[in-house]
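Ligand: zinc ion. Inputs:
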Amino acid sequence: MSIRAHVRLYHELSGLLYLRQPKPDLRILTYHHVPPFLRDALGSQLDSISRERSFLRPEDFSNNSTRTSPGVLVTFDDGFESAFRAYEEVLRPRGIRAIYFVVTGLIGGNTSVVARHRFLAQLKLSNKKCVSGFDESQSPMSWEQASQLIGEGNEIGSHSDSHLMLPSLSDREIQRELVESKVRIADNTGRVPQHFALPFGSYDARVLALAVQEYSFVHLTVHGPNSLSDVQSLLFRETIEPCESARFAVALTRGALDHRSCFRRRCLRACGPQLSDKCV
Ligand SMILES: [Zn+2]
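Predicted complex:
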């Protein structure tokens, strides 16, 4: 068994043994690419989670939900066509709705070849866990598909315009990534996005401060529970791949990896978006 597999097993066990009951909180799951051969595995994960948590719809955020039982929200980053197919074949039949974060500069064939290759090269590194190569379903979804998702109760969020590391950009460039993607989504779907997911989960104090000015909700890649009754503008999320076991998915929603983000979460809770750079 590899070291990685041992670590996974440890986390599964710790999640199952020490965190027996799901807490009345909101967990947000983050998927990326869903290869066609893993759609059934995704369904098994969601079925297992549904035994102890109810799935929230994106609209529940704006309604200031009064739920008290454990909740879960599904999100997909990067706007792959495979995520659209997963919705049709896995989420929709189960009545689950999600937020799909799209990289607006990659949709509609107006992308520069360089930007597209850079994006795919980055994904090649990050998607190794589930897949070794690329397939057609890793193309960006179309604006028609994005509009259809909205029409059926899902939400389209922004994942920036170019998927760059935002902390490495100037204030003006960050602003452009935030605003340009918002305008493109509004123009192409008729809905102004309220949600933004940070590319690579990467942030600093400047990025957060600018992001919360443009969006009601900013999704991080920091493990942890969110409040059900008082949803904050900065949201913690659990990154998961469909190739993980269903047991691991349940353990994740019970907080099996919360310890990894302990320091960041404490800082973010204490400071909110007005982070000092010491906290990042
Ligand atoms: Zn991404």
